[in-house]
Amino acid sequence: MPLQDLFSVEGKTALVTGGSRGIGLMIARGFVESGAKTYISSRNADVCDQVASELSQSGTCISVPADLGSEAGCRALADDIASREERLHVLVNNAGANWGAPLAEYPDAGWGKVMDLNVRAVFHLTRMLVPLLEKAASDDDPARVINIGSIDGLQAPMLETYAYSASKAAVHHLTRTLAHRLAPQRITVNAIAPGPFESKMMAATLERFGDQIRASCPLGRIGRPEDMAGAAIYLASRAGAFLTGAVIPVDGGISTRHQ
Fold first, then answer.
1. Which one of 39, 106, 162, 164 is the catalytic residue?
2. Number of continuous H segments (helices) and E segments (strands) in the chain
3. Is 39 one of the catalytic residues?
4. Are 22 and 42 in contact (CB under 8 A)?
5. What residues does 147 pair with on adjacent strands?
6. CA 178, 184, 186, 188 torsion-angle sign
7. DSSP secondary structure string, 158-194?
8. Exposure of 9 in the CB half-sphere (CA atoms within 13 A)
9. Which contacts of 216-220 are long-range, i.e. CB under 8 A and separated by 24 or more positions?
10. Are strands 61-63 and 13-17 parallel, antiparallel or unpaired?
11. Is 35 left (phi over 0), alpha (psi -120 to 50) or beta?
């Protein structure tokens, strides 16, 4: 295979949940600009439509608004994709939520919201889209599931985000479990564990602790959009076809200092 084709995702069809902002937008933009037909979902239909329109200036991006906080919401999105596509090459499970509160005050509602979106939605949407993923899969080029975890699932977080860090650790282990189960169906399942990136979810943390976070990073900086897009494109391309069950920290080396 020519080297220029090794990292190609051109002609593939991808779905990126939570694709209208943050990590999801970084990945969606990378896919679109690399020639993949990319669906993005988010709860806010107006924002999802606006972002899809913007990304379509450099490729093909389609808005499929969805609320993945329930099994019914996951089913609705899976059915929507199935009504539009016969096969799906790449699923990126990125939609997520966070909740911070002191230990003594941590609400059950916050715990439930985070777990429902960060863990249950990953499980439900993946299993519901297996039929479409199977149709896209081959021995040499499997279908791909890319789950977005976090380095907070690899180490104790700096902030009191108990449900978030627990949910991301669960995503990492679910990734390994699904990788083992789906390998015979020629579907790989891997996770990216991002460190600090510029995003709406991280904005307040970076404003308060940005200098401290940069100082703690061996590479001395915050992640950039191309860092995240590059990792996702590798996993979705022929270059990543023999990798499954992996959790890849994309964090400038932060997790090497705390594990």
1. 164
2. 9, 7
3. no
4. no
5. 93, 191
6. positive
7. SS--HHHHHHHHHHHHHHHHHHHHHGGGTEEEEEEEE
8. 34
9. 216/254, 216/257, 217/251, 217/252, 217/253, 217/254, 218/252, 218/253, 218/254, 218/256, 218/257, 219/252, 219/253, 220/252
10. unpaired
11. left
Tokens of 137: 């899969």
In the structure encoding, which two tokens stand for residue 87, read together? 């096969």
Q: Domains along the chain?
A: 3-252 (3.40.50.720)
Could you tell me the pTM of the whole model? 0.94
Check if the beta carbon of residue 93 is closer than 8 Å to that of residue 191.
no
Provide the pLDDT for residue 105: 87
Per-residue pLDDT, 258:
58
What pLDDT is attached to residue 169? Answer: 97
Query: Hey, what are 211's tokens?
Result: 């200098």
Tell me what pLDDT residue 162 has.
84
Give every strand in the sheet of 143-148, ordered side by side.
Answer: 61-63, 37-41, 13-17, 90-93, 143-148, 187-194, 247-250
**DSSP 3-state of 232:** helix
Is 13 within 8 Å of 136 (Cβ atoms)?
yes
